[in-house]
Write a structure and sequence with these properties.
Structural class: alpha+beta
Pfam families: Acetyltransf_1
Organism: Xanthocytophaga flava
Strand content: 25-35%
Number of strands: 7
Protein name: GNAT family N-acetyltransferase
Oligomer: single chain
Radius of gyration: 15 Å
Largest sheet: 7 strands, mixed
Strand order of the largest sheet: 1-2-3-4-5-7-6
Distance between the termini: 29 Å
InterPro entries: Acyl_CoA_acyltransferase, GNAT_dom
C-alpha cells in the first residue's frame, strides 16, 4: 500500500474523522479554526491512499516553550496496521525539528492503550497525568525531545 503524506485542510480532517471508531463526535470546524488560527504555527497532515484521505495528524504551537503539540490524529480503521500513524508522526517530527522546536508533546486518554503504547514505542516519555472523574478518562501526557 502506497500512502502519501501531505499538508491538508480542516475539511479533509473532518472527512476522515467519521471513519475512526474511537472518535464519537467530530469537533466542529470552528473548534479547529479557533485552536489553529490563534496559534503562532500549526500543521495539518493528511495521509492519502491515492487521492482518498485515510488519516490525519494536526498540531500547533500551544506554549511558547520550544514545544510543538500534536493535538489530534487518527487513521481510518481499514488502514490501520500499515504504518500510517507512524508515517504521519515521522513527518510531524521532522517538520517540528525543521521549524526549530525542541520537543514534541501529545496527550492521550488512559483508555486508549494502543495510542499510549504507540507513543512509548516511538521514544516518547510520560511527563505527567491529568486526573479526571474516572481512571479510564485520565489524560497521559507524553513528550519526545527532538
Amino acid at each position: 500500500m502506497k500512502i502519501q503524506i501531505r499538508e491538508g485542510t480542516i475539511d479533509e480532517v473532518l472527512s476522515v474523522y467519521q471513519s475512526i471508531p474511537e472518535f464519537q463526535n467530530a469537533p466542529a470546524k470552528k473548534a479547529y479554526e479557533q485552536r489553529l488560527f490563534h496559534s503562532n504555527r500549526y500543521l495539518i497532515l493528511i495521509a492519502c491512499n491515492y487521492t482518498q484521505p485515510v488519516g490525519f495528524k494536526v498540531g500547533y504551537e500551544k506554549d511558547a516553550d520550544g514545544s510543538f503539540y500534536s493535538w489530534m490524529g487518527g487513521v481510518a480503521n481499514e488502514y490501520r496496521r500499515h504504518g500510517v500513524a507512524g508515517q504521519l508522526m515521522d513527518v510531524m517530527i521532522q517538520w517540528a525539528k525543521d521549524q526549530g522546536y525542541t520537543t514534541l508533546r501529545f496527550k492521550t486518554r488512559n483508555c486508549f492503550k494502543p495510542m499510549l503504547i504507540f507513543g512509548i514505542k516511538r521514544g516518547f516519555d510520560i511527563y505527567g497525568i491529568e486526573p479526571r472523574e474516572t481512571l479510564e478518562d485520565y489524560r497521559i501526557l507524553l513528550e519526545k525531545r527532538l
